[in-house]
Amino acid sequence: MKLYEFAPTRSIRARWALQELDVPFEAVEIKLLEGAGQTPEYLALNPTGKVPTLVDGDFVVTESVAIVVYLAEKYPEKALLPTDIKQRTQLNRWMLFIVTELEQPMWRIARNSFLYPEEQRQPTDIEIAKGEFRTMAAVLEKHMQGREFLVGDKVSVGDFIAAYTLDWGNEVGLLDQCPTLLAYMQRMYDRPKAAMRIKDALQTVQAA
């Protein structure tokens, strides 16, 4: 099994799932800043040119949420997905909430801060996106009060999705009013097989 990754990105989610599952894998770094995502060879695996990409034999999976769900379903003995249909549906609900309501404002912030060429950036949208993130984070904050995990009474791949996204929001100071989410995120990253925090992953890139 191969994981094509770039350290500070959503690759963290896929790597985290693999580490929690104790699945041996080969890590292949895709140096996005050097254009490695746009080579014909990589685009044949992932036409978006993004990471992560998981290759399991002749089966290729892209999109970080799809990857972690695939891995959890492939190794059901590790119990990283609920088996109860109602809990599984709730998990799907919250994973979709995270990637639509929390992750999308973060992308807008990133694009208008440094990803887009300067002439294409819309600085006013940064504050709008920050407000949208805070509003939706408050919804998750309320959900997590009195809970240890996103859904049910045991960890799931949804917790890795959530923790990474919250760490992203925390990097730009958007969780200062969400003590429950901060504590939850820290618990997840304190797990022995957790992946790196975003700030640590960024340091590995800068040091290379």
TrEMBL record:
What are the alphabetically sorted keywords of the record? Transferase
Question: Which positions fall inside the GST N-terminal domain?
Answer: 1-79
Q: Which Pfam families match?
A: GST_C (PF00043), GST_N (PF02798)
Q: Which GO terms describe its molecular function?
A: transferase activity
Which top-level group of life is the source organism from?
Bacteria
Q: Which InterPro entries match?
A: Glutathione-S-Trfase_C-like, Glutathione-S-Trfase_C_sf, Glutathione_S-Trfase, Glutathione_S-Trfase_N, GST_C, Thioredoxin-like_sf
Q: Where is the GST C-terminal domain?
A: 84-208
Similarity comment: family membership:
Belongs to the GST superfamily.
Which PANTHER family has this protein been placed in? GLUTATHIONE S-TRANSFERASE GSTA, GLUTATHIONE S-TRANSFERASE-RELATED
Q: What is this protein called?
A: Glutathione S-transferase
Q: Can you name the source organism?
A: Steroidobacter agaridevorans
